[in-house]
């Protein structure tokens, strides 16, 4: 897992923020590569000490129920909650989005929620009709034209609180009609979440958005 892509350098004199990637499961390397391209130093986070060293954290896709259990067994759940409560910027994609939500529908009873974004998400929401699909989205805060988005057994956001900014929806022409206009990217303060996988398309604009959020924080 520890590939040569990782920059194992603590905070240096440069302005590159150190951004961790929760490395329990999922697209860890892909996120790290995109973060580095977007101007950050990426490091894997599996331990509480590592969590304490980062300026922000990416929670990758995978399986939210599994990641929830692994957060517990790695004794990261409470430290992560504490850092989020202190305002650490975070970006969750897909399963990461589910973890960051206040509530997950169609989840497991014992699945932990980090409650960093005041939203209710539905797991595998598109799945009953379209398991995986791709779509071009306009994302608020991402310039340079539509973003090609890959959805893999993705959630959608069913409900958002007043402090949550909706930054992307599925186009209203998307089939089936149940998928059209669904909320698939949100931001609440310094916490960002996408239902899709921006680490898979070679387009680092979402990671740039997050690196910018971390730099401003
Ligand atoms: N369906 C997964 C979950 O519920 C998320 C899928 C993904 O991250 N690609 O956690």
Automatic annotation (TrEMBL):
GO terms for biological process: L-glutamine catabolic process; pyridoxal phosphate biosynthetic process; pyridoxine metabolic process. One of its GO terms (molecular function) is pyridoxal 5'-phosphate synthase (glutamine hydrolysing) activity. GO terms for cellular component: cytosol; glutaminase complex. Pathway: Cofactor biosynthesis; pyridoxal 5'-phosphate biosynthesis. The active site is at 94 (nucleophile), 197 (charge relay system), 199 (charge relay system). It catalyses: L-glutamine + H2O = L-glutamate + NH4(+); aldehydo-D-ribose 5-phosphate + D-glyceraldehyde 3-phosphate + L-glutamine = pyridoxal 5'-phosphate + L-glutamate + phosphate + 3 H2O + H(+). InterPro entries: Class_I_gatase-like, PdxT/SNO, PdxT/SNO_CS. Signal peptide: none annotated. Pfam families: SNO (PF01174). SUPFAM superfamilies: Class I glutamine amidotransferase-like. Its EC number is 4.3.3.6, 3.5.1.2. Keywords: Glutamine amidotransferase, Hydrolase, Lyase, Pyridoxal phosphate, Transferase. L-glutamine binds at residues 62-64, 123, 152-153. Catalyzes the hydrolysis of glutamine to glutamate and ammonia as part of the biosynthesis of pyridoxal 5'-phosphate. The resulting ammonia molecule is channeled to the active site of PdxS. Belongs to the glutaminase PdxT/SNO family. In the presence of PdxS, forms a dodecamer of heterodimers. Only shows activity in the heterodimer. This is Pyridoxal 5'-phosphate synthase subunit PdxT.
């Amino acid at each position: 897992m520890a590939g040569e892509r990782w920059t194992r350098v603590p905070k240096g004199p440069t302005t590159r923020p150190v951004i961790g990637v929760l490395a329990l499961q999922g697209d860890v390397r892909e996120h790290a590569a995109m973060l580095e391209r977007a101007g950050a130093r990426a490091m894997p986070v599996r331990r509480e000490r590592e969590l304490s060293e980062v300026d922000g954290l990416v929670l990758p896709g995978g399986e939210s129920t599994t990641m929830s259990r692994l957060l517990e067994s790695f004794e990261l759940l409470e430290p992560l909650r504490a850092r989020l409560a202190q305002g650490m910027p975070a970006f969750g994609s897909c399963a990461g989005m589910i973890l960051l939500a206040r509530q997950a529908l169609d989840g497991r009873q014992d699945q932990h929620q980090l409650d960093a974004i005041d939203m209710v998400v539905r797991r595998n929401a598109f799945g009953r009709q379209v398991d995986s699909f791709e779509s071009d989205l306009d994302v608020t805060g991402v310039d340079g034209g539509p973003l090609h988005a890959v959805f893999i057994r993705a959630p959608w956001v069913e409900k958002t609180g007043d402090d949550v900014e909706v930054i992307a929806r599925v186009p209203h022409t998307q089939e089936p009609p149940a998928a059209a206009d669904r909320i698939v990217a949100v931001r609440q303060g310094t916490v960002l979440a996408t239902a899709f996988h921006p680490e898979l398309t070679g387009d680092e604009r979402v990671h740039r958005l997050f690196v910018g959020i971390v730099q401003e924080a």
